[in-house]
Each structure stands twice: as structure tokens, then as C-alpha cells.
Amino acid sequence: MNYKLLGRSGLKVSELCLGTMGFGTEAGWGADKDTSFAIMDAYANAGGNFLDTANVYKLGTSEKIIGEYMGNHDRDYFVLATKYTLKDNTTNPNASGNNRKNMMRSVEESLKRLKTDFIDVLYLHIWDSITPVDEVLRAMDDLIKQGKVNYAAISDTPAWVVAKGNTLAELIGWSQFIALQVEYSLLARTAERELIPMAKHFGMTVTPWAPLAGGALTGKYLRGDHGRIKPESKRLNERSRNITQTVVDIAAELGVSEGHVALNWMRRQEFSCIPIVGATKVDQLLDNLKTVDVTLSQDQLKRLNDVSAIELGFPGDFFNEEGVRTNSFGGFYDRVEKRV
């Protein structure tokens, strides 16, 4: 794999991130320790160095497995990202949320499970609508100054909150969020309304979760393999079926797997993007890694863009209206230029 800079930093990460939410067998599914080790070995052998986990994944088992793996491998080779926010114990009222107390406690617990002295990238996992964003950034900056965290990042948070936070951080001199983790795929493009334009403005890298829409874009639901998905899921509606069928058709044209098409579409978007690909089996990971060798034609990209297009709403669609752009704005600028 090639390497990309993560946001407006000098941190070099591989072009595909390995999601480790499935490391552990709690809840009756996932990869055991040996399989998880084999997945990380295969990823590293392919040049991958960017691991994504969280304090709550598999009740902490994901971090524990990674920590044990790091004990026998070069810790400095890997860029390790974890998250805080969601409740990982019931000892006190502040065992969840974005507040400073929970952040400090959660990071200390993650460091123990990961058996490391530092976390490369710390994500706020999900916005709690309670904690002031300046409290979050000040606390993250303190952790960075202490050497326990290298970079700050944020996940599943409204665009206006992230924008306010990065603006405050730039003004005050705190470390800014360099990455934004959100749901994004051919079936879920609503992040294009506010979140992705905001990320582009601040030079943040987008690290999409569920880039294959929980496996829907592999075509398995079209084949009747519904697994644990609920019948009312949006991933089973007519729009999703049409999008997935287009992915299946293009995969057949290229002689590649459906996942390669869906991931390659994402990697060809006009913003910094590093998809998070999860795996509970080695062959799943190896197949996903092959996407770096796949190239979609302009016609194929257009077909995917057209079938999955969403309404941007106001003001996105308003800006794109031809009459607005040519008559209102164009006329205004023409008058300004004449006066100047």
C-alpha cells in the first residue's frame, strides 16, 4: 500500500485503515485472538500500519488483543487510533460522555489494555450534546502535551461543532482535530451535505466507517443472505437494491469483487479519504486489500454517482441551481466588476 498524510499533519498512514471492532468473540461473533493476530500480520505484510479500535469494542477485548500483539511487534511501526466516550463500566455517573473526567479515565484504561505508553490518534467517539467543545479540545491538548496522545480526532459529531472546535483551537493554539470518522458509503452519502465540505475546508482526512454498508454492497442481500439485518433496514429498500445491483454489474465487467468497486468509488472522491475496512477472517482482509489495484473508468464512476445521488437540501442544491448561479450570483459579480 501507499501512504497518505492524516489531515493537516505529517503523520503517514496507509491508504486503508484496519478496523478491529470484530477482534474478540463476545456477543457470539468476531475473531478469536489467534485469528486477530493473523489478520494484523496480513495487514502489516501488505504495508498497512493504521489500526482503528475503541475502548468499548468487544467490551475492551479488541484493545487487549491489540496490546498483546504489540508486545511482540514494533509498536512504532503502527499508528494506533482508539476512542473514548461510550460507557465502558458502571462505576460512576461520569463513566461515559465527552467530559474531561471521562476522557482522562478512559485514556488511562485504554493505555493499560493496549500495553503502550501512548495513543497515536484519540477520537471523541460520539457527540454527547452536553460537554462544551472547548472542554474537549483543552483536555485533548493536555494529553498531547503529556505525551499520552499524539493527535486529536473526532467521530460522529455535527459539522458545526467540529468547525467551532477547530476554529477555537486554531485561535488559542491548541491541537486541532485532524481526522473525522463518519458513516459514508454508496448507500449512505448524507455526510456530503455538511460534514465532508467542512472536513475539506479544515484539511481533515475523512475515515469512513461501514464503507461497504455492513456488507450490503457486496451483494449478499441481493442473494438472499440477510443474516442478522432487520427487514425494515434501509439497506434492503429499493434504492439500496438499485445501487447494489449497479455495483454488482460493474464488478462483473471488471472481473473483481463487489467490495473492490465500492471501496474504489470512495477512494476516488475529491477529498482526503481513508476507508476503515473491518475483518474477522484473513481472507476477508486480503480481498479488501486488493482494492488498491482496481481502477474504475469515468463512465463507471458516473453510473455509481448517478444511481446513489442524494438531495443536498438547502443551501447545497440552491447553490447548484443553474439560474441562481448564472443570474443571481453572476449578475451580481458582473455589476461589482464594472464598478471596480
TrEMBL record:
Database matches in Gene3D superfamilies: NADP-dependent oxidoreductase domain (3.20.20.100)
Pfam families recorded: Aldo_ket_red
Entry-linked InterPro entries: AKR_Detox_Biosynth, NAD(P)_OxRdtase_dom_sf, NADP_OxRdtase_dom
Top-rank lineage group of the source organism: Bacteria
Keyword entries, A-Z: Oxidoreductase
Stretches assigned to the NADP-dependent oxidoreductase domain: 15-307
PANTHER family registered for this protein in UniProt: NAD(P)-LINKED OXIDOREDUCTASE SUPERFAMILY PROTEIN, NADH-SPECIFIC METHYLGLYOXAL REDUCTASE-RELATED
Protein name according to UniProt: Aryl-alcohol dehydrogenase-like predicted oxidoreductase
Source organism of this protein record: Mucilaginibacter pocheonensis
